[in-house]
Specification:
The structure is a homodimer of 180-residue chains. By secondary structure, the first copy, chain A, is mainly α. Chain A is built from 7 helices and 3 strands; from the N terminus they run αβααββαααα. In chain A, a hairpin with an 8-residue loop joins strand 2 and strand 3. In chain A, helix 2 packs across helix 3 and helix 6 packs antiparallel against helix 7. The structure holds a DNA duplex (28 and 28 nucleotides).
DNA sequence: CTGCACATGTAAACGGTTACATGATTGA
DNA sequence: TCAATCATGTAACCGTTTACATGTGCAG
């Protein structure tokens, strides 16, 4: 008789996913998130530390004192039950994808502004996409060194999306400039 | 001396934006959101009704009894101060764009699964993008009839993104199938 | 000796979803 | 008369961000 894998909170998913590769401290996790998943899945200390405590209580991860130098430090490793819960979630095709994009909402309503102001909004949006593209290109070498299928592919998704965003802004800037 | 426009909560932004086009009831707003902005900015009744009350208290919108048939009904119209606050927000190039995409997180970790399971995850993701594409094509005529710049352009963004998503899944399915 | 990175945590405020609750009107 | 749609709202719960709080160790 197999136990049904525990339900994972959103933050638990990134944490377990990262711990599946290697044991890490909360601080480590934050660092890895900021250099990889942050572009589509961020996490703050305010979520990470309490969630680590909860996951340990549930037995999905195990804490271990791992001081480095003279610094106090606790690392966590994923347990078998944790790995089961993680892979059960990854395998599950059900997913709610509520996206929120403030930039798109602005463009949706940009027709309320005068043409010059609307152009400025689109130019700012283009800048955002271009910046994201640049930041993703910076971390590309990291993702390219991944040992498993996944990180590089997701990064390529981000690159494609950002390129599309720039192109879309350019097209609409042209459209706005040719209006009237 | 001009008063600094009021800060707008996230939900206030959609509400004011939609009321800028025409007076509507809370129920109307929900309906319009569900047929237009929902793909990048959703809103539930639990947010809409309390927010309408707050916006009215702030003087950014004005309530008016507008029963239809025998049904009780309150519509809201945007005030001049409301319009100022709205356009100030649209014009402001500052925007925080924290996106969360559960599908991407799954793909990020999909290398933990066996190849067949990984393929199934990518196939499910492809389905999601294809469905979104289909739903956006359905509402395309609505957006095409917009009287202002904005809605159609944002819809085209959605179409482009979804098409890219399908393509990206197909490429990665090919990659997975050719692995080993 | 100073500032930065390491390291861990809590509390308040905020925003959002879901479930619940209620009731009227209309069309089949 | 029954179901769907119109219409409005609240309360509990969940998750996230931000600000705060504290302290260590190392490099310049």
């Amino acid at each position: 008789m197999e136990a049904k894998p525990a339900h994972l909170s959103p933050t638990a998913r990134v944490i377990l996913g990262l711990l599946a590769a290697a044991p890490r401290s909360g601080y480590d996790i934050k660092g890895v998130v900021d250099n990889s998943t942050r572009f589509f899945w961020a996490a703050s200390y305010g979520q990470i530390y309490p969630e680590l405590k909860r996951l340990a209580e549930q037995g999905l991860i195990a804490a271990e004192a791992a001081p480095e130098g003279g610094r106090r430090r606790t690392t966590f490793r994923i347990t078998d039950e944790g790995r089961d819960a993680l892979t059960a979630w990854v395998r599950d095709p059900d997913l709610v994808n509520e996206m929120r994009d403030e930039g798109l909402l602005k463009v949706f309503f940009v027709g309320l502004l005068e043409r010059e102001d609307a152009i400025a909004v689109l130019e700012a949006a283009r800048e955002k996409y271009a910046e994201k593209l640049a930041r993703l290109r910076e971390i590309e070498p990291l993702a390219a060194g991944a040992d498993r299928f996944g990180p590089l592919e997701v990064l390529q998704y981000g690159l494609g999306m950002s390129e599309f965003g720039v192109k879309w802004c350019d097209e609409n800037l042209k459209k706005l400039r040719e209006m009237d």
